[in-house]
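Structure tokens please, single chain.
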Amino acid sequence: MNINYLSPLSDLEDELKPLFSNEYMLTFFKKFCDAIQTRMWRLRKAKNARYSAGDFLRVFFYSEITGRSI
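Here you go.
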């Protein structure tokens, strides 16, 4: 008796491949960075006034890479 396995991953692979293209990932990364900058600086402006938004992003991503949330 032959069992035919359905392979949903092969079907999903064709659909997901464009999502992981460089252009899509860079667009997502830019929107993500913009959202973090605007939200964090709006909520904590007084506390973070001496830091630039770019410095905050560097610290944020470094802390995420090392596994420590800020």
